[in-house]
Amino acid sequence: MRRMAVWFCLSIKRWLLHPGFTVMLLVMPILLWGISRLEPEETERIRIGVASEDPGLGREVAEDLVRMGTEGSMFEFVLYHTEEELKQAVRTRQAECAYLFPEGFEEKMNEGRYRRSILVYTAPSTILEPLAGEVVISVLAARYDGMMFADYIGNQGKEGELLKEEALSWYQVYQENGSTFGFEFRTSLEEPVLEKKSVFPVRGLIGIFVFLSAFFAACSVKEDERNGLFLAVPYGERTVCRIGALAAPVCLAALSGLAGLWAAGEVQNAIMEMAALTVCGAGAVFYAGLACMAVPKPEWIAMCIPVLALGLFLICPIFIDIGKWLDVIGTIRWFLPPAWYLQFF
């Protein structure tokens, strides 16, 4: 282990003397800071379209969303009359995204057919739709939970039928005045009404940078092997020295990414950040080690790096989440350290 630590420290020094890699380490925090400044300010109102073809529950939820948008919310929900108007608003970017409660929405909810009961229209570059979706679901729950409570009371025999309307009125009173009254309704449904996920681009860029730095190191290790640098090391310790050489630029890339998160104001928990970067870095070293064993020439690894980078940008949900349309992408992500890193947050 002592020899591995020495090799790791010497590799750190070697990579810091590499002009191109040093520039990348310095540019990364600046780049991440710049991307964070492109995010919309909290004071801006974000327009979200909403329409309902359902005259019952769907219409009530849509009107609740519009009223909520006038009460200091970061979202401004705008009511449209038809589905085509809704699509046009998203197409022309008059709305960040849009929600449609289709005809028969209330019947679907009553029958327990929650999946895809709300239609969502969004541009591929939209990153705020998941947050708006949480607002829509919360308003729906506030409205529909009372109905479920009233139905529950109504199913408790003849007395329940008589108390159904009164129970609903009391439910609304207690929910609005901040009392401690609550009613929990559980179902065995596995999938929620909306199930989407989005991430801030900063973390995705860090994960890819850490991962690719291991393959830069793999090129260097293969070149050192060709030049006979490891021949001076005892045979039993060559593997740990290779691991130290692979880990050196990964460690530097992780520190650069951590500095970028701090500059962007995205550090939520320092211990969690370091743990996530450690897992991502360890996975990157593992894959780079496999590449060293499987690929005989460093030039071949170098030729694969641009393809690997492009593939990571497409597969990992950084700017666009194509996993929403291709289920196989979700399976591939299980094997990619940058995707592991994103799962922490």
In short:
By secondary structure, the protein is α/β, with parallel strands linked by helices. The protein has helices spanning 2-16, 19-37, 57-68, 83-91, 105-111, 129-154, 157-176, 201-226, 238-264, 270-294, 298-315, 327-333, 337-343; strands spanning 46-52, 75-79, 97-101, 119-122.
Question: Overview of this structure, please?
Answer:
With about 350 residues, the protein is an alpha/beta fold. About 65% of the residues lie in helices and about 5% in strands. The chain is built from 13 helices and four strands. Strands 2-1-3-4 form a four-stranded mixed β-sheet, with helices on both faces. Helix 3 (about 55-70) links the parallel strand 1 (about 45-50) and strand 2 (about 75-80). Helix 3 packs across helix 6 (about 130-155) and helix 10 (about 270-295) packs antiparallel against helix 13. The longest helix has 27 residues, at about 240-265. The radius of gyration is 27 Å and the shape is elongated. The two termini are about 35 Å apart. About 30% of the residues are buried.
